[in-house]
Batch of 4 targets.
Target 1
Amino acid sequence: MKTLFRGLTIVGAFFGIWFLLSQIDYITFFKINEAKSATEKGVGDMIWDQIKKTEDIIVNDSITKKLDELLDPLCKENGIVRDSLKVHIIQKDEVNAFALPDGHLVIYSGLIEASKNEQALIGVLGHEIAHIENDHVMKKLSKEIGFSVLMSITTGNNSGSVIREIMHTLSSTAYDRSLEKDADITSVEYMLKAKIDPAPFADFLYDMSFDKSFGGALSWISTHPESEARAKYILEYIKGKKLEKKMILSQKEWDGFKKAVNDYEN
């Protein structure tokens, strides 16, 4: 009996300790979330500060307003806080857009000029917003750069070479294939909920992958491989779904927006 009682006591103590440990919020206890958030903000701000020093930023209220008009339905219908996105337009011929940590969304003027319609542009922007919303940006950097390295540059070790490596990683290398597909499908879902037809986004991927007129300027396509396959799975995904033909900008407004971007001078 004494042995049985001792055994039951040990078992009871084990489950008691297990229950107590299960009640601890380890994320809060070790402040992991706080460290991650601070690191993400620090890295995002440092990269954007570096970009501002080396690139021509488009600062124009009418251009910004039109871009906001395109983004607002996407955010509103998908529960995305618009103010959480820090949107920047860079005057550069490259057909490119990329996300930085802490909600920075960088768009090159070349992408706007290359987009045949607003749906194509919205699809690309939705793709990059999906990377932000689904935490792909920090996952990519943590995997390829290392979280400890990211933390180190936000706590005094402002290594220029590390910042340049981060910029290169985010602007000119692809995410894992699974994350790219996730961002594509998420963007399509964003568009469907906002009653925007995703088919032109698929057309953009397909057409641009074969467009030689841009030479080496097709950064967004070249860093997102298998564009033809991506166009096909997007079209397959929306097959049979009710597609709205809602337009945000009139054709005149869209043409005026592209012209203003093209004609912009610092």
Target 2
Amino acid sequence: MRAHLGDQLVVESPATGATRRDGEIIGLHHADGTPPYDVRWSDTDEVTLVFPGPDAHIRPLHHERAPAAHEPPQDTGDMTTLSRTAPPPGSANPGDIGRRVALERRRQGLSREEMAGRARMSPDYLAYLEERPADPTLATLVRLADVLGTTVAALRGGGIDLPPGQGHALLHPELRDLAPEECRSLLSTHGVGRVSVSTADGRPAVVPVNYDVVDDAIVFRTAPDSVAAAAAEREVAFEVDHVDEALSQGWSVLAVGPASVVTDPATVRALTRRAHTPPWAGGEREMWVSIRPTSLTGRRIGPAER
């Protein structure tokens, strides 16, 4: 048995062949990739030293390639570089890795210097990785994923075409209600949420929209003939959530209240000027809809305190 950093160790039932447990290999003890391995288990996020038995096998996540003729600034961390890898077939541009790293770093409130220090790499290399289409070594990705509390596969965008929540449930989960203040904080100032509406033919529909929060109102742009426009002048439900696939935890916030079309020209101009992003769907979407929540609730799921 031989493995690379980032491969999956899968343990199957000898009787049925069904997967009993799986985890990401984050540490090798032999340069030739033979056991034992340091494995972060997907069901507990714990790291253990594993000597695989006959019911275990390796699921590769990458293919090796030769080093490029012109290399970017080198990662000078103290972990030995075992191989340089190309993205899996069908994955996004290598530059997308840097964008994912930068987004998660900012979400966690880390400066580049803090992040580089924890990942044992040069701040200049981290800047290059975040700003250019770099192709980092697998060892570098493993360190970055460890600092960010995610996986190499997630940084590569391996689950981009999969619905969230396909990971294993926590062994000891805790589901708790959120206070209105925390719900407002999680709504933040903007993002992508889902609005639930009844269409003209009376059927229910749920539509994703780019939204902003302005003076406690949730506002979004749409086209007058779109499904989302059916929210106007009705009571609607608006939901936003976040799932941490690596840690099998997340939260959701639900806002319920009347929606109305913003008709004041000055208000429309102000909303357009301060919008954080144009609608991702593109096209002419100049109709602003405002939702003023009369109910704001939320829940968070995470590991129970023990």
Target 3
Amino acid sequence: MTGWNASDIPDQSGRIAVVTGANSGLGYVTARELARRGARVLLACRSAARGAEAGDRLVADVPGADVEFVRLDLGDLASVREFAAAYPYERLDLLVNNAGVMALPLGRTADGFETQFGVNHLGHFALTGLLLPALLATPGARVVTVSSMMHVLSNIDLDDLNSERSYRRWTVYARSKTANLLFTHELARRLAAAGSDVVAAAAHPGYASTNLQTAGPKLEGRKGAERVMEIGTRILGQSADAGALPSLYAATAHGVRPDCFVGPSFAMWRGAPGKSRRAPWTRDDRAGERLWAASERLTGVPYDALKV
């Protein structure tokens, strides 16, 4: 995969893709490039105004693009269920679990979950489970979940998934990104046991220049910290176009294997997509099973078709 870039994306004509958080940053680039290659792309975004604007901008960037905005708030399980219930197709070729939040002050989702765990993991766990029938009905379908190189900072705490004992924003962010990888690992295992050819893979952007880094300081009104993050990201981060390449590779490239983790090839930081290192705890079968059971219980979304 050395030197792989957006021009190497195979033809996506006839494929249907759902990209969460597609209104900006990595999600927008992912949706744009899939549409450029002919996919019909559903832009799943929380904000109706930003989602609609992203759809208009995408069509301006890619004339004739087949895109549609559909509202989805991953921090509200009722919204996730509404999105899945309204999904209009019997097939789904590609689900890109891209949306996320980073290092926010302590908060709770509409269902009472700690925000980073609730949005980054539980929302996507529920969405994937509810869309599973359409994925299983589609030969060669893929689920790509976006994690982070920051997952190496912390394993999950299975006894305190909602950070009720303590809250350190970066540790909790890392745990939510570990949860993304454990979810991919366990999903891949269960799909294989069920005899499905659906591929569950994960990706990360390295250090990409998006608005994710400044969201926490902005929420708290910390102008100085927000400015520092803006400058640091501009200097050290690669572009959103480059940061989206690992997701696009995992979603479209030939030979992608279940439970692979794709990221920038240079020190997990930047460069063309390649096989990424990952913490050993992200392949812990027992932890994956326990997180899965807890996620089914917390979201109320059972993966009945994959019971093993």
Target 4
Amino acid sequence: MNIYTKRKRPTASKIFDTYWRFAYERQNIFFNRINKIAPLTNDDILNKYKFTNAYRASDRVSQYLINEVIYKENNFSEKDLLLRILLFKIFNKIETWEIIQSHLSKIDLSSFSFKNISQLLEEQMFMKNSIYSAAYIMASGKSFYGFDRKHDNHLKLLEKELIKGNLFEKIKDSKSIEEVYLILKTLPTFGEFLAFQLTIDINYSNIIDFSEMDFIVAGPGAKDGIHKCFSDFGDYNYSDIIKYVAEIQEKEFERLGLEFKNLGNRKLQLIDCQNLFCETDKYSRVKHPEFIGKSKRIRIKQTYKPKEIAIKYNYPPKWGIII
């Protein structure tokens, strides 16, 4: 029996249709770019502003993580890989990773040096170069580790919790994706949103192997999008709604006459549906300005700027996806 049968379902607003139309068109752009079809889209909003892909793993930073950080070489231990993933994702900036990598023979447990990496990042800050992505805000961690520089506290976190601590063993022994999330959430400076994002990133590797359909945490942007898409939550909370939407995706695309192109045989997962709520919130600021979200943000900050370097799309081999 469907787990939602006896519960009062949420009531959709007109923006719920926009949610599916956005997912459909954003995925079309993805395939149009791969197939070199122009124009990528006739949607003026999508042409002007920057939005993430329908599938999180297709985004530029996720692709770099998969291709260059996790699966670039096969001679790293699983603990090396965890260090590489966390070091990359804490900063979440390709340029920062490449600066560190250019000064080390390789990035692994044996080459990790708090002092050396700290100095590299300090030099970048002296040159007024940002070392953190703006995708999410990292807490400074000064109250835990005592350093004035945020990056020093984060490097110390990796040294204490992973290199000298038992973080790897805890994650490796986890029995569910939720358990991994709860472990990461206990780490200093890691809030709910960041802990879950990092859980998904680790799950791209072979350190753990859990379904992305098992558990979800709604981020702040997704919560805004959910409030815009539903006028009444019924008996559902944020996570319930994301699970509900993932469950009915095929029926909704069919209802709207949209032939959504899945990523291989992989339907939209919970993390993708969560992200789509966040992107729908942004998209609707222009498409439906009369709907004001909980955050009351009314503008889209980032405009779309095509990247000169084409991405060779690869996905975790365990997914069996070929593009």
